[in-house]
C-alpha cells in the first residue's frame, strides 16, 4: 500500500469528513546517474556563469524574474514564504459539475482519498451521493505549499482526488489548425469512410484492461541491465550498430477506403485463425494419440485383409484360408506333406 502523504478533511458544506491522501500513481522512470567513464566517478551538475564561463558558488546565486530583456526582479526565500497560501489541511469543495464535462487535459496527478478515523459514515454518504448524481466535486487543496484546483471523482468504492491545471495553464484549442466541418457533414470524411471506420472500431473494441499494457521500452532496457549484471559486464558500453537511414519518401495520396478494407480483412482473418486454433489446441492430445496408434492398426487391418483374400487353387476349385486369430502371436505350424496329400485325395 502506498504511504500517506497528507491528512486532513473534506469540507462538504458544514460537514467535515476526515480523510488521508495516498498516491494513486508511481514514477517508473529509470533513475540514471552521470558517470565519468574513466574511473566510474559520479559527475555532478555545475552552476556556470554564462558570461564568464566560470563556476558560481551557491551563496552568490539568487532567483530573478525577467520582466523585460536583461531586466530582473530579485526574489529570496522570504518572498516565497509570504506568498505561500496557508495550508488548511482541508479539501474545500466549492462546486459540483457533471463528471463528463471536464476535458481530460485538465487532469494532472491522481490521489486516493481514504476515510480516516470517524470518517467512514460521511465518506460513504458523499460517495453514494456523487455516484447517484454523476457529479464531480471541484475543490481547492494545498499540497506541498502550493494551492491546487482538484476534481474529486467516484471510482468503484473509492473517492479519487485528481489535481488539475488552472485555465491559464491550458493552451486554447482555437490556436490549432483543425479541419472544418461542412453543415451536416463530418469534417474531411466521406460517408463510406466513416461507415468502414466505424466497423473497424467495433471490431477492435474490448473491455478496459489496463494491466495488459506495459512500458515495453523500460522492460527491454531493464532486461539489458539485468543481462549485464549477470554476465559481470557492468562497465562495458554497447557499441553503436551500423544502421542505414531509410531514404525519405515523398508525400503519398492515401486511399482511406482501401486501407480500412485491408484493416477489416486483417482483423477478420485474425479472428478466424483464433477460432480455428482454439478447438485444435483442445483436441491436440487425442489427435496425437491416434496418430501414434495408426501405423499398428493399419498393419493389423492390412494383414487381416491379406489373410482373408489369399486363396489356394486345385483345378477349378478355390479354397479360402481362414484368417489367423489376432490374439495369437505364435507362428502357424506347418502342415505335413502327408496331411496335405490326404486332403487332396479326398
From TrEMBL:
Q: Which NCBIfam families match?
A: Ku_bact
Q: Which family does it belong to?
A: Belongs to the prokaryotic Ku family.
The domain of life for this entry's organism is Bacteria
Q: Where is this region: Disordered?
A: 230-249, 264-346
Give all residue intervals belonging to the Ku domain: 53-181
- Segments spanning the bilayer are none
Q: Which GO terms describe its biological process?
A: DNA recombination; double-strand break repair via nonhomologous end joining
Print the keywords alphabetically: DNA damage, DNA recombination, DNA repair, DNA-binding
Q: Does the keyword NAD apply?
A: no
Q: Low complexity compositional bias: what residue ranges? A: 292-318
- Protein name in the entry: Non-homologous end joining protein Ku
Species, as recorded: Cupriavidus necator (Alcaligenes eutrophus)
Amino acid at each position: 500500500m502506498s504511504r500517506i502523504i497528507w491528512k486532513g478533511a473534506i469540507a462538504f458544506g458544514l460537514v467535515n469528513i476526515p480523510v488521508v491522501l495516498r498516491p494513486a500513481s508511481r514514477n517508473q522512470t529509470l533513475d540514471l546517474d552521470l558517470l565519468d567513464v574513466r574511473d566510474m566517478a559520479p559527475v555532478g551538475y555545475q552552476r556556470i556563469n554564462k558570461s564568464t564561463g566560470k563556476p558560481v558558488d551557491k551563496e552568490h546565486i539568487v532567483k530573478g524574474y525577467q520582466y523585460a530583456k536583461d531586466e530582473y526582479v530579485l526574489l529570496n526565500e522570504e518572498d516565497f514564504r509570504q506568498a505561500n497560501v496557508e495550508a488548511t489541511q482541508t479539501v474545500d469543495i466549492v462546486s459540483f459539475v457533471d463528471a463528463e464535462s471536464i476535458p481530460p487535459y485538465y487532469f494532472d496527478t491522481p490521489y486516493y482519498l481514504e476515510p480516516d478515523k470517524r470518517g467512514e459514515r460521511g465518506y460513504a454518504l458523499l460517495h453514494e451521493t456523487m455516484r447517484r448524481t454523476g457529479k464531480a466535486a471541484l475543490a481547492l487543496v494545498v499540497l506541498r505549499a502550493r494551492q491546487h484546483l482538484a476534481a474529486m471523482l467516484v471510482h468503484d468504492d473509492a473517492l479519487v482526488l485528481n489535481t488539475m491545471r488552472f485555465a491559464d495553464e491550458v493552451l486554447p484549442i482555437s490556436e490549432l489548425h483543425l479541419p472544418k466541418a461542412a453543415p451536416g457533414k463530418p469534417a474531411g470524411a466521406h460517408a463510406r469512410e466513416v461507415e468502414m471506420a466505424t466497423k473497424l472500431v467495433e471490431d477492435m473494441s474490448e473491455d478496459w484492461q489496463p494491466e495488459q499494457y506495459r512500458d515495453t521500452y523500460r522492460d527491454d532496457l531493464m532486461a539489458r541491465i539485468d543481462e549485464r549484471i549477470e554476465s559481470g559486464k557492468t562497465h562495458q558500453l554497447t557499441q553503436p550498430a551500423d544502421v542505414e537511414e531509410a531514404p525519405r519518401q515523398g508525400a503519398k495520396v492515401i486511399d482511406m477506403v482501401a486501407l480500412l478494407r485491408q484493416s477489416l480483412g486483417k482483423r477478420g482473418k485474425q479472428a478466424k485463425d483464433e477460432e480455428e486454433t482454439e478447438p485444435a489446441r483442445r483436441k491436440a492430445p487425442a489427435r496425437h494419440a491416434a496418430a501414434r496408434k495408426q501405423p499398428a492398426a493399419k498393419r493389423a487391418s492390412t494383414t487381416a485383409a491379406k489373410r482373408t483374400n489369399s486363396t489356394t487353387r486345385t483345378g477349378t476349385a478355390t479354397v479360402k484360408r481362414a484368417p489367423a486369430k489376432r490374439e495369437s502371436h505364435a507362428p502357424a505350424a506347418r502342415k505335413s506333406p502327408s496331411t496335405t496329400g490326404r486332403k487332396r485325395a479326398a
